[in-house]
Structure formats: structure tokens, C-alpha cells
Amino acid sequence: MSRTGAEIRASETKAKIIQDRISLAERHFGQLCDDVASFTRKCARLRDKGDQIAKDLVDYTEAETLNPSMVRALSEFASNLSTVQDYRQAQVTRLEARVLTPLANYGLKCKQAKNDIKDGMKVQELEVTQRKKLDRLRQKSPADRAQLTMAETELQKASVKASASTKSLEQLIDKFEEEKLKDLKKIMTDFVNIEMIYHAKALEMYTECFQNIKTFDIEEDIEEFRAKMQPSNSTNRMNMVRSSSYTSLESASEQQPTSSLRRQQSAPNSQNTTPLKSINNSASNSPLRATADSRNGVNDEESEEEDEEEESEEDDDDDDDDEYTETETERTETARSTARTDKPTGQSQKTVIRPPSSLIKKVSQ
User: Fold this and answer.
1) Distance CA 81, CA 99 (A)
2) Residue 123, Cα to own-chain centre: how many angstroms?
3) Higher-scoring residue by pLDDT: 305, 170
4) I need a surface site. Which of 4, 111, 166, 229 has the fewest CB within 10 A?
5) Distances in Å between the alpha carbon of 285 and those of 147, 181, 183?
6) How many CB atoms lie within 10 A of CB 29?
7) Are the C-beta atoms of 279 and 363 separated by less than 8 Å?
8) CA–CA separation, 28 vs 213, rounded Å?
9) What pTM, to 2 d.p., does this model score?
């Protein structure tokens, strides 16, 4: 038996309600999925920033040479903060697996439910079409029983299918609503549990971080800094000793070039005195000196006269050099002749021949 118009309109209303419910769930679940995904990404970025803060603290403690209590406290603080970021990583992983993935899967569920609703709506539209066809036949040819019977049979088949479709849609929406509520409850429960677990663990570690900060000993660090800025008296004395030793080494290094310069200046003087000694030695070893020494002696009066002659000859010019050569030759010959003539008589005439003082003076210069 075919359904009445009221039943058909009721089925259409139910189908529209089901379609609206599915569309509502699809729209809001999609928005919730986007927000949870953004929240998860923000948590991941927050985890990275927390790791960077811990790394910066570790780098600072490694570079710090003073403030020992601060170094200890910050090292422990960085370790606990890094542990918090490990818990945050676990939070991100759980959010992706237990919250984000079920919400993302609801897009497929809603699409499948919409396809089922479209199939049910097509069956109901077929029933409506058959009813309109039957009504037109009744108006045009009310006496044609065969066509009317055939149209009524088609309408009954369409009505049966439409009724079955309406029931299946009711079951579909009922199941969809039940699964939606259960899934939403589980998703939100998992979300809260994940956040509670993270925050509970993070609270424990942040409590440790607070205790680490409380171990800061400002007085100890200030004393360490002041001791570094103001070294002890022993250190000052050592610094003074080092500076005095450095000063003495520098003065000694400055005196070494001066002494070497003096030796270089004195070297030519020693070289200048050497020719005089050699000349004196050669003069003492000359034949004139040998001839004079061969004599028996020199009278005192002659010595005095010779001394006077030496004093008078000190003021002579360089021209006496030529006269000295001639005089020396004459005296040598006279001395030889006197020595030959005086030997038989036993009388020795003592004669001392000296070079002029001007020559000695010139050689000494």
C-alpha cells in the first residue's frame, strides 16, 4: 500500500533534518580539527623555544667564570626546563594521535553519511514522481484501468522503497549522532587528560626550577666578584716584584748596546797606539841605536845638552823630516869613522843619536 502525502512529507522533513545535522557536524568538526592542529603546532613551536632557552642558559653557564652559585643554579634550572620540553613533546605526540586524527577522520564519516542521505532522498523523490504520474493518468484517462493499475503498482514499489529508505536514514542518523557524541566525549576527555598529564609533570619540574632559582647566593657571588676586582696584598707584592724584575731586565738590555758601542769606539784607539809601539820598537832595534849602544856610555853633560836639544826641537815644523834624513846620514858616517879612529887609542867618544821629537810627535798623532 502506498504512503499518504503526510507520511511522504514527514519522511522529507526527516531527511532534511538528517542532512542538516550531518552538515553541522561536518562544519564544526572541521573547524575544531583546524584549531586543534594549530594548537598542536603552537605547542611544538613552544617546545622548540623552550629548548632554545635551555640551550642559551647552558651556554651562559659554560662561559661564566665568576658567580659559582649562579652557575650551579642555572645549570640545574636548564636541565629541568629541558625536561619540561620533553613532556611537551609527549604532549604534542599524544594530541596528534588521540585528538587531531579522530577529528580529521570525521570529515570522511560526514561525507559517507551525506552520500547515504542522497541515496535515500532519491528513493523518496522517485515515490513522489510515481504519485504525480498516477494522478495525471487518473485525470486524463480514468477509464483506462490497465494503465492505472500499472501506475498504482509502480507507486506501491516506490513507496515500499521510500519507507525502507526512511527507516535506514533514521538508523543512520541515530548511529551517526551516537558515534559523534561518543567520539566527541572521548576526544575531549583525551585532550583534557593529555593537558593535565603535561601540566602535572611540568608543575613538578617548574617547582624544581623554582627551587633552583632560590639557591642563588647573591652574597657569595658578589664576594667572588669583589675578590676578583680587588686582589690580596700578597698578589700585589708579587705583581710589584714582577714589575721590578721586568724593569731591571729592560735596563740591562738597554745597557748592552751602550757597552758594545763603547768597545767599538775604543777599538780604533788601540789600533792607533799599535803603530807607535811598533815604530818605537823598530827605532830601538835600528842600526843607529845599535851603534849608540855599542859605545861605552854617554856623559852627563852630553845627555843634558841632548835633552835641551829635544825640548827645542819639539816646536819644529814638518820640514825637519827632510833635514833629519840628511843629518842622520852624516852622523852615521861620522860615528863609524870615529869608531875606527878611536879604537887604537883606547879613548871612546860616546855619542847618542835620537830622532827628532817632531817625528816622534807626528808618529804619536
Assistant:
1) 26
2) 75
3) 170
4) 229
5) 178, 142, 138
6) 22
7) yes
8) 45
9) 0.56
DSSP class of 296: S
348 SS3 class: coil
- CA-based nearest residue to 105, from 183, 192, 173, 38: 183
Buried b (16+ CB within 10 A) or exposed e, 98-116: bbbebbbebeebbeebeeb
Q: pLDDT by residue (tens digit) across 161-205?
A: 878 887 888 888 888 889 999 999 999 999 999 999 999 999 999
- DSSP 8-state assignment for residue 230: S
Residue type (1 letter), 68: P
Kindly tell me the burial class for residue 90, based on how many C-beta atoms sit within 10 Å of its own C-beta (0-12, 13-18, 19 or more).
Answer: middle
Report the chain's terminal Cα–Cα distance, integer Å. 163
Distance CA 202, CA 87 (A): 7
Contacts of 102 by beta carbon, 8 Å cutoff, 6+ apart:
183, 186, 187
Quickly list H helices, the chain.
Answer: 5-63, 68-94, 101-140, 145-214, 218-229, 233-284, 287-294, 300-313, 320-342, 357-364
Cβ-contact 113, 176 below 8 angstroms:
yes
At position 136, the amino acid (one-letter code) is: R
